[in-house]
Specification:
By secondary structure, the protein is an all-alpha fold. It has 2 domains: 137 residues, Tetratricopeptide repeat domain (Serine Threonine Protein Phosphatase 5, Tetratricopeptide repeat), CATH 1.25.40.10; 32 residues. It contains 9 helices and no strands. Helix 1 packs antiparallel against helix 2, helix 3 packs antiparallel against helix 4 and helix 6 runs antiparallel to helix 7.
Amino acid sequence: MASPDHLEDLRRRVHADPTSIAFAQLAEEQRRLGQLTEAVATCRTGLSTHPGFMSARVTLGRALLALGQLDEAAAELQTAVTANAENLAAVRALADTLRQQGRTAEALTRYETALRLAPNDPDLDRIVRRLRADADTANPGIDPVTASRRAAATVATLEKWMEAIDATRTKRRA
């Protein structure tokens, strides 16, 4: 965590040169210190000059997430993930956001991506296993006999449908 002197130095640098990329570091330090509203404002100001600075977008997304502004957080984090699908911080924060939005299946997909990027992260592994288990509980599979019967019935219906289409085509050609 930044010392008060370091934080003040960053503030002075950004104030002296509003186009400085130091805004991203200042915003991240503000976010870490829980100064979330300040972090959001710092990011938005800096991103108006440097819209492609993805680490600042991640910081903005994480600060918005912490503030409970989930739609805005998801948008910022999606932008960062689109720019770099291997940005672990962005993928993880997007997964957290989706999970808080109740978009569990999408969150699980993002957490699985994060776990591929950080395969030794026990926290990610635990989250993925829990969400998979929850999904299995919420959507229990059907037994193999029933599944086989349903598949056979579906195939039979499709075959009849295809025969009807073929018969119609034959009549049209005649």
